[in-house]
Write a structure and sequence with these properties.
By secondary structure, the protein is an alpha+beta fold. It has three helices and four strands; from the N terminus they run E-H-E-E-H-E-H.
Amino acid sequence: MGSISVTGFGSATAVPDTAVVRVAAVHRAEVLADALAGAESARASVVSAAGDLVVSTVNLSVWPVHEEGQRAGFEARHGLTVAAGDVATASDLLARLASEVGDRLEVEGVDLTVSDPTSALGAAREAA
């Protein structure tokens, strides 16, 4: 039997309507257990500052820190995302995080996304 193959290209645009804040709660200490405990404390501060916003843990990592060729302790890091809703809310959240988490906070970025891409995907398929 024969076969038919069809290829198409279509595109559609969608305006981002959600801001996702990417941060890390970080702590450095001489002992691994202290580094983990400090990072957990910083993570709890992120969750507290986020209030009703959805916070998700992306990863947890710990590694040895070296200074001048010598082991200087350990650094633990909780990678987190916070669904902030819009850019204004993300901005307010970052200000609260800076105040409440302080130097144990690393801001990795703010991603603008489309919360429900269904209609844009349908329009792109239709255009194809």
